[in-house]
Amino acid sequence: MMMINLNFSKYLTILFVSIMSYTPNTIIAQNIVPQSSTMSILGTSNVHDWEIKVGKINGELGTTNSKQINTLVIKIPVLSLKSGKSIMDGKTYDAFDAKKNPTITFQLIEASQTKLMDKDAEILLTGNLTMAGETKKISFKTIGKITKSGDYQLKGSAPVKMTDFKIKPPTAFFGSMTTGDAVTVKFDVTFKG
C-alpha cells in the first residue's frame, strides 16, 4: 500500500509541474539586435529638411507561444541622437533637456493581436512614449514578421509632435531658422529570435 501511495504522489507531482510549466501565454523575450536595427528622426525647417540618426537602441520584445506580441520596450539614450552637425546636436540635447531626461522610452500597452509569421503582418502598436520628461499615449502601425533566420523584425514610422511633449522646436541663428513641430520617427528594428 505504501508503494502505491509513493508512486501516485510521484505521478501527481509530475502532472502538477507539467501543467504549471505550460501556459499558452508564456512570455518569450528577445533582445534587440543593434547591428540589424536602425532608427532616425525626420523633420523640417524653414531652410531645409533634416534627419537625426539614432546611434544606440536598447529594447526587448516579448511574445507568447503563439507568436503574438505582448510586451515591447524601447530605450534610446538622447545623447546617441546624431545629425552630423554639432550645433544641431547641441540644440537637440537642449530641447530634450538631456541632462535631466537622458532617455527616450516607448513602453507597449497593447498590440493588435496579429500572429507574427514569415510574411509581413500589419500590427497596431499602442504605448506610452516618454520624451523630455513627458509621457503621452501614442498609436502607430508597424509591419512585423519573423525573418528567415528566426529573428523578429518590426518596421514602420510614427508621427510625433514635439509640443505634445512640451519640447519647444529648436531655432538657430537668433530665431531666423526654425524647425517644424511635426517629426517622423522611422524605424527598422530586429529582435533576436
The count of strands amounts to 13
Helix content range: 10-25%
Q: What's the main sheet like?
A: 11 strands, antiparallel
As for the CATH topology, it is Lipocalin
By DSSP (H or I, 4+ residues per run), the number of helices equals 2
Structural class: alpha+beta
What is the mean predicted local confidence, pLDDT?
Answer: 86
For CATH, the homologous superfamily is named as Lipid/polyisoprenoid-binding, YceI-like
InterPro entries: Lipid/polyisoprenoid-bd_YceI, TTHA0802/YceI-like_sf
Pfam families: YceI
Domain Lipid/polyisoprenoid-binding YceI-like: 29-192
Protein name: Lipid/polyisoprenoid-binding YceI-like domain-containing protein
Please outline the helices and strands.
Elements: H1 2-21, E1 28-31, E2 38-43, E3 50-54, E4 58-63, E5 69-77, E6 81-82, H2 86-96, E7 103-111, E8 121-131, E9 134-146, E10 152-161, E11 171-172, E12 177-178, E13 182-191
Antiparallel strand pairs: 1-4, 2-3, 2-13, 3-6, 4-5, 5-7, 7-8, 8-9, 9-10, 10-13, 11-12
Give an account of the 3D structure:
Residues 29-192 form the Lipid/polyisoprenoid-binding YceI-like domain. It holds the Pfam family YceI. This is Lipid/polyisoprenoid-binding YceI-like domain-containing protein. By secondary structure, the protein is α+β, with helices and mostly antiparallel strands. The protein has one domain: Lipocalin, CATH 2.40.128. 16% of the residues lie in helices and 46% in strands. The chain is built from 2 helices and 13 strands; from the N terminus they run H-E-E-E-E-E-E-H-E-E-E-E-E-E-E. It has helices at 2-21, 86-96; strands spanning 28-31, 38-43, 50-54, 58-63, 69-77, 81-82, 103-111, 121-131, 134-146, 152-161, 171-172, 177-178, 182-191. An 11-stranded antiparallel beta sheet has the order 1-4-5-7-8-9-10-13-2-3-6, with helices on one face. Strands 11-12 form a two-stranded antiparallel sheet. The radius of gyration is 22 Å and the shape is elongated. The termini are far apart. The relative contact order is 0.18. The model is unreliable at 15-23 (pLDDT under 50).
